[in-house]
Amino acid sequence: MTDKELEVIGDKIVNVLKTIYDPEIPVDIYELGLIYDVFVSEENNAKILMTLTSPNCPVAESLPVEVEDKVKTLKEIENCEVEITFDPTWTQDMMSEEAKLELGML
């Protein structure tokens, strides 16, 4: 698979991630800065490194499953694994300008 093909698949994954919203904040998880990295292997397996707004997040169990399930709907993806990390800890500084604007922080 070429770098260009991997980039296209990565972009498709990001587009899927932008359809998933934090239930407490009306902004998608990508713009919130909860997605730290997206990896796609030569075997078309995706790995998403992400965080939550807090370790006590009410969707700590369901959000990673939703991310996995939605990414797996892409025909290019064989499997998806989500890894949750709290290093670095999420802060509001990680939000995109679009997210900050949406939340009236700009």
UniProtKB/TrEMBL annotation:
Pfam family, one: FeS_assembly_P
InterPro entries on file: Fe-S_Maturation_MIP18, FSCA_dom_sf, MIP18-like
Lineage: superkingdom: Bacteria
UniProt xrefs under Gene3D superfamilies: Fe-S cluster assembly (FSCA)
Residue span(s) of domain MIP18 family-like: 11-84
Protein name, entry field: FeS assembly SUF system protein
Organism of provenance: Polaribacter butkevichii
